[in-house]
Amino acid sequence: MSSTSRLLGACAAPAAAFFSAFWLLPVVRLFALPAEKGWATYFAVLTDGRYLHSLLNTLGLSLAVTLATLVLGGLVGITLARQRFAGKPLLLSLLTLPLSFPGVIIGFFIILLGGRQGLVADVTEWLGLGRTTFAYGLTGLFFGYLYFSLPRAIATYTAAATAMDPQLEEAARSLGASRWRVARDVWIPELAQTTLACGAIVFATSMGAFGTAFTLASKFEVLPITLYNEFTNYANFALAASLSITLGIITWLSLFLARHAAGPAAAGA
Amino acid sequence: MAHPRQIPPLLLALTALVSVFMLAPIALSVLAGLVNNYSTGLASGLTLRWIGEVLDVYGGTVAASLLLALLCVAGSLLLGVPCAYALARSRSRWARLFEELLTLPVAVPGLATALALILAYGQLREFRQSFAFILVGHLVFTLPFMVRTVGAAFRRHELLALEEAARSLGASFGQRFIGVLMPAVLPAIVAGSLMVFTLSVGEFNLTWMLHTPLTRTLPVGLADSYASMRIEIGSAYTLVFLLVILPVLWGLQWLAHLIEKHHGT
Amino acid sequence: QNAICYNCPPEWADWASQIKAIKTKTGITVPPDNKNSGQSLAQMVAEKASPVADVTYLGVTFAIQAQKEGVVTAYKPAGWADIPEGLKDPQGHWFTIHSGTMGFMVNVDALKGKPVPKSWADLLKPDYKGLIGYLDPASAFVGYVGAVAVNQARGGTLDNFTPGIDYFKALQKNEPIVPKQTAYARVLSGEIAILLDYDFNAYRARYKDKANVQFVIPAEGTLVVPYVMSQVANAPHADNAHKVLDFVLSDEGQALWANAYLRPVRANAMPKEIQARFLPASEYARAKTVDYGKMAAVQKGFSDRYLKDVQ
Amino acid sequence: MELERTRVDVIDCAKTYADGTRGLQPTTLSIEPGEVLALLGPSGCGKTTLLRLIAGLETPDAGSRILFGGEDVTALAIERRGIGMVFQHYALFPQMSVAANIGYGLRIRGVPLDEQRRTVGELVDLVRLGGLENKRPAELSGGQRQRVALARAVAVRPRVLLLDEPLTALDAKLKESLRDELAELLRRLHITAIHVTHDQQEALAIADRLAVMQAGRIVQVGDGETLYRRPGHPFVAAFLGRVNTLKRDTQALMRNLLPLGGLLLECPPARAGQSALLVRPEDIEIGPLQSGAGQAVVQRRSFLGDRVQLTLSLTDQALLQAEVPRDHPAQVGDTVGIRIVPERLMPCEEAV
Amino acid sequence: MELERTRVDVIDCAKTYADGTRGLQPTTLSIEPGEVLALLGPSGCGKTTLLRLIAGLETPDAGSRILFGGEDVTALAIERRGIGMVFQHYALFPQMSVAANIGYGLRIRGVPLDEQRRTVGELVDLVRLGGLENKRPAELSGGQRQRVALARAVAVRPRVLLLDEPLTALDAKLKESLRDELAELLRRLHITAIHVTHDQQEALAIADRLAVMQAGRIVQVGDGETLYRRPGHPFVAAFLGRVNTLKRDTQALMRNLLPLGGLLLECPPARAGQSALLVRPEDIEIGPLQSGAGQAVVQRRSFLGDRVQLTLSLTDQALLQAEVPRDHPAQVGDTVGIRIVPERLMPCEEAV
Ligand SMILES: Nc1ncnc2c1ncn2[C@@H]1O[C@H](COP(=O)(O)OP(=O)(O)OP(=O)(O)O)[C@@H](O)[C@H]1O
Ligand SMILES: Nc1ncnc2c1ncn2[C@@H]1O[C@H](COP(=O)(O)OP(=O)(O)OP(=O)(O)O)[C@@H](O)[C@H]1O
Ligand SMILES: [Mg+2]
Ligand SMILES: [Mg+2]
């Protein structure tokens, strides 16, 4: 059946050619770049304290965001799946709207919320607590990342919880399980795959997020910003390439895990 | 005494809180784009002045972004749909490897992809200074989404049977691809296009590096305005972004819904 | 007809008016560009093989570096002779178009009744927590100028940045906002109450945008710095580049700078009524110059130290 | 295992769903202690609705009452009704082993560990799953899963056992053998049980009594033989097995005769005035053409293994299906004699 | 519709899948022109594999040959084999109307429009879908879909019609009525057809001949009655219907007798030397206890509608299942006489 494989080859050829020319070759070149400055450049992220610090910052922040997103997204997603009320489709569609926002907008939103003239500052001043601002620090980044991760988690959990077999819960209840036991013995195991897949994607997105951090111009340096600074402010291409490699490997690994551990739940992510 | 269990009020409160967190900034920014002075708030009166100013300074970016996104959808359809078919049907190891490679641009930071493109093709001046350079970057980034979405549809069991049915009735490859497969994966194609469109319109990481002062897109303009303009202008610009993307989003969603209903799958 | 200028942000130094004037007088469109000096330099280095930009506008030290990197070329525009020695590269790789004085641009309303700070030392007071902003000293020229200014004011020299670094360390307690690009609009909106910035931006805010903004020359002293322009080497539109450079040094161009409260490099261009809006000369007496060549030479060392110690 | 035997009374129970669908019309039904009752009916007739009302998974309309052994449980949540339930797809907890699944209800109740272990062991033996205690549900066959689900439901010594189509998910061959096994087990447990199914063979094999439902109502309740032989309603007749419809014209009707291949069969007085009658394929006797028999021609002969199905054409009736033993000599094209014992004729209109 | 009648020869056909699974052992099989052959067997036995080889959807191992009317089609792609195929889930084109689905093959062939319309109209009538021409598949019931799939497959006047479990997706009641309808239709079309199923009732009702498969091999080919009554293999016996296994000890074996409730039944010489024998439930006769009959006790009596199933315990055999007519008087606890016509005993070991 070589005619079949020839046909399939012809179908894939344009995409393969385009992809090789405009991604594979340039990136292979980029990955060779740090070698020009010596092999140690590849490990700069581990050997230079500043980069290491930035990497650890990013990892910590991403993990915290992932955790918070899963907990909040899971609770809200389940609630939305189970609660019936008028306007639910509208609310769901509004809640998932931010999926299509660029990171810069989300940075701006955080400024609107937590900047010096932000909503939170107004509220805390009115409460007599002084103007509280959080936009430009770690908190700002955390909320920014949370803002763009939540829609995905809410959508995923709502879908997963809606698709869940209600009989499992009914079975547990018929055996006398309390609310907590149902959550522990039915919901959590049933949603484990979704959680893994969603968590990996949220983590990967947070690791690579640039626009939000860029807009907030936070003092709290994350790896994409470090990378960007190396490139644009200091024209240090080899180092920028080396940092890209590190970041790429981490995000690819977590996405790979999401796809292979959780299968179809992560498709189209 | 309703037996189907009630949601605890705590969860409802949390849901409301999260909804406020998600929706308040959108409302705030819409409001801020329409008032005369943000710090005085609504009391300063409503105005379209800021939107006018945005269109004045950044009007070009809106058209550029829309055009870019449409071209990106077209390109990823032309390249991606046949490729998705090939990957879905092929059982060779090369196909699996290519599929994995194809998803890498999603994982590798956009900055790195952009850096690589600049280093590789930056000296082609005409190319570098045209929107085509950005388009190429967007295509590389969005192609995996299209391939993955449509590929999943091609892989569906029913579709294999549909194709075999068409073959048993004597349809050639072209006839069954156009007449049977394409209509059957249409919902996935619409979903993929929607995804590619929104990704391209909102793309910032790559574009920020790839753009030149002459080739600015909407998110680049947004970043600019946030960094250096009044908060009202930034908000008005955000409002313009919403006005641009919402109709397209909802339109395509409606279309997908319609097709789904029409096919009754 | 385009001439691409790196670092011509409309919200800075009234490039908006200048760009409009260039368009009407020469027919050349200069698209707005929001990079800072450091970013412009890096981009030019990255694009050295095939430049995108035709001209660039830089803080003087970056121009000196750009010359070293070979990304700018020599051009002597009309009016070259009027530029004082020391404010231009003898071959014409860069030349000053205007200068500014570093100080505090203060949005008095945003202080909400707190006193306007008068000195570098004032800024360290807890009163000003969350109110201060400065541009990244490791990247933006204006940031570096501020750093050099405070370093000199607190007893340091170009060979000894320790007082400056210590100052920034101390300033972190007040949780400053550190943008990478010009933040003029954020001061106007009150997002940043006190920004380390030039006099011209403060005057523009006060007189043109009618904001309650004051400019403060700190009691311990400050710095005057020239801003320069260059033609990019292998510029794609070299002819247009020349026209732009000629225009910014023309009487008309220089008058525009003066109207925007920038001290034009050609001294005859400053009108009386504009001069009257500046702070009195006695205040400006505290503004010093430095050896800009040396300032450029030690910049990398400072940046590294700042990144390591302050961030 | 000693299980309680509870009487269940459903009194004027009705269910209207939120969208206005009337899932169950007001229904009254009693199940005797220890009895196995089958709810039988076509898809959408309300079987599951009734079962879930008894379980406490749905709230009935106002005025409905459900009693377990005389105690009103209408307002009690499912957790406290003391029922055991077996679901169509078993709803086993996928992450737990067979033993953990069976012991789940006991763990919930905080039963001491060694008693848990003893009960689980007893049940594992009862449903013959010895050796599989540590497997997970995904590693079991359909029949084994079904037995785990049953053991899990009875482990908590429920007052009433509810089964919603517990055999539907199995393939035909397995279903047949598990049907007998389930019947056997229910009889051994001697527990009050309600079994939902749409398969009449299954209902006949398992239940003591059948309640046949149609469009939200119970049409007839009784034991299998009664329903099969003396259905009170043509729907019940057709649902419990194949039937042929026989017509008669006004003349025959007036004389209470039935035309059958030229013969005029005299019908029992009870059938008088009914213009159409029903007869089951196995009640049509096919023999040699002789007096006292109608005349029919064999159109088709299908060998079905244990019996042969004949399609017969008669001059005065539509095509009839008859089932004869497999060694029957009739061949396609043969002209044969046809006889029906008049007592086997069933009414085609609703008996009032 | 006039359809071609083509003979199909499968010669030494085998299939090894890419992963090494032997989907089909070398197989030789002929289907006569106009014959309906059923491929019958349990899941995974290779039925679909054989069908797909004939269709041209899989490439057979080297050395295999497939002939359609004497023409070697082994190397021909499915598009040019001239087959019609009906798939398990019908594979109807969802976006096309019923008429467009049926006419698809004709459109592909560029048949003139009015001829297309005529043929489609004819087929719509044939499968009784009049009035539904403009509906979409999603709006049809399972049975209607199945008929559209059939019409679509025969519209192109295929040489051979291939059906892969076309009734499996339907529910039990519908399946039974469609089974007869499909049998009728195939006979009317008189086309060479191969029908894959795992349901013996379906195979018996539809096919002229059955090929029973097991583990990639055809075990026996023949018409239904032969396979049911004289299975060449215990697997065939068990697959086509229920069987009881009867054991005999060495002594009985030596004298070719079978112990049956105290009686020693004399077996036909053909059964000599076989230590276990099979008998179908309906071949066990139950009557009053009398001489010439063994003795058995009724353990369980299940009323199954058209017949009654008795579970019998004997002193010298394991529990036996017998099926008797529904009016049989035996009750649980009765001691009854049991008889088996010796010719009805079937071998339990493979006949060589
Ligand atoms: N949650 C619900 N909301 C609205 N209508 C419902 C709901 N559940 C069932 N119904 C409707 O109530 C009627 C009875 O449904 P029920 O599930 O009791 O039928 P069933 O006899 O169990 O059918 P099946 O054999 O298909 O399981 C049906 O018309 C069904 O559509
Ligand atoms: N594409 C394939 N690759 C590898 N093995 C296969 C493939 N298709 C089928 N098999 C294997 O070949 C054997 C025969 O499969 P086949 O599908 O022909 O069985 P079947 O009789 O049709 O079963 P069913 O009744 O379940 O449809 C099985 O062991 C199956 O696992
Ligand atoms: Mg039901
Ligand atoms: Mg199969």
UniProtKB/TrEMBL annotation, chain A:
Keyword Transmembrane helix: yes
Keyword Membrane: yes
Domain ABC transmembrane type-1: 55-258
Species: Polaromonas jejuensis
InterPro entries assigned to the protein according to its UniProt record, in alphabetical order: MetI-like (IPR000515), MetI-like_sf (IPR035906), Sulph_transpt2 (IPR005667)
Family: Belongs to the binding-protein-dependent transport system permease family.
Function of the protein: Part of the ABC transporter complex CysAWTP (TC 3.A.1.6.1) involved in sulfate/thiosulfate import. Probably responsible for the translocation of the substrate across the membrane.
Domain of life: Bacteria
Keywords in alphabetical order: Membrane, Sulfate transport, Transmembrane, Transmembrane helix, Transport
Upper taxonomic lineage: Bacteria, Pseudomonadati, Pseudomonadota, Betaproteobacteria, Burkholderiales
Subcellular location: Cell membrane
Protein name: ABC transporter permease
Subunit field text: The complex is composed of two ATP-binding proteins (CysA), two transmembrane proteins (CysT and CysW) and a solute-binding protein (CysP).
Membrane topology per record: Multi-pass membrane protein
Transmembrane intervals: 56-78, 90-113, 133-150, 194-217, 237-258
Automatic annotation (TrEMBL), chain B:
Keywords: Cell inner membrane, Cell membrane, Membrane, Transmembrane, Transmembrane helix, Transport
Record bears the keyword Transport: yes
The organism of origin for this protein: Polaromonas jejuensis
Domain of life: Bacteria
Name of this protein: ABC transporter permease
Transmembrane segments: 62-88, 100-121, 127-147, 177-201, 236-256
Xref: Gene3D superfamilies: MetI-like
Record domain ABC transmembrane type-1: where: 62-252
Similarity section: Belongs to the binding-protein-dependent transport system permease family.
Lineage, top ranks: Bacteria, Pseudomonadati, Pseudomonadota, Betaproteobacteria, Burkholderiales
Topology term for the membrane: Multi-pass membrane protein
Predominant localisation class: membrane
Subcellular location as annotated: Cell inner membrane; Cell membrane
Annotated Pfam families: BPD_transp_1
From TrEMBL, chains D, E:
Key word Transport present: yes
GO molecular function (one): ATP binding
Keyword Transmembrane set for record: no
Pfam families cross-referenced by the UniProt entry: ABC_tran, TOBE_2
SMART domains reported for this sequence: AAA
Residue ranges annotated for the ABC transporter domain, each copy included: 8-240
Keywords (A to Z) from UniProt: ATP-binding, Cell membrane, Membrane, Nucleotide-binding, Transport
Name used for this protein in its record: ABC transporter ATP-binding protein
Gene source species: Polaromonas jejuensis
